[in-house]
Amino acid sequence: MLTVNPGKRITASEALKHPWICQRERVASVVHRQETVDCLKKFNARRKLKGAILTTMLATRNFSSKYDAQGEYLRPSSALHGPRQTVLLYLLLNFMSPCLCL
């Protein structure tokens, strides 16, 4: 029903005859229910993983020892430090987008 190209779009009378419209109590509430639940589970898992990664990055940056006992600066040894690693983690988190559901 939702087609950008007007030539491929169904007419108003065809839309009114579509099961999603004329039988919406039975059809719309049941169709794709399991798929939607699965997508929500995947989304929630990705959201939790993203939060855990961001928390780890923050904790590693804020609580890592950057100075030794004499006050000399220590170079971070963690793989999570540095501009290149930060950009890679940022890209990884952004590509963890939620699944697209109907």
SSE layout:
Layout: H1 12-17, H2 19-22, H3 33-63, H4 83-94
Protein name: Calcium/calmodulin-dependent protein kinase type II alpha chain
GO molecular function: kinase activity
Keywords: Kinase, Transferase
Write structural notes for this entry:
The chain has helices at 12-17, 19-22, 33-63, 83-94. The protein has 102 residues and is mainly α. It has two domains: 1-30, no CATH class; 40-68 and 80-101. The mean pLDDT is 72.
Summarize the structure.
By secondary structure, the protein is mainly alpha-helical. It has 4 helices and no strands.
Overall mean pLDDT stands at: 72
Report the strand count: 0
Largest sheet: none
Strand content: under 5%
* Unreliable residue stretches: none
Distance between the termini: 13 Å
Radius of gyration: 25 Å
In quaternary terms, these chains amount to: single chain
How much helicity do the residues have? Answer: 40-55%
Total individual domains: 2
| Overall geometry | elongated
Helix-strand topology string: HHHH
State the helix count: 4
Structural class: mainly alpha
Keywords: Kinase, Transferase
InterPro entries: Kinase-like_dom_sf
GO molecular function: kinase activity
Organism: Harpegnathos saltator
Short descriptors:
single chain; 102 residues; mainly alpha; 2 domains; 52% helix
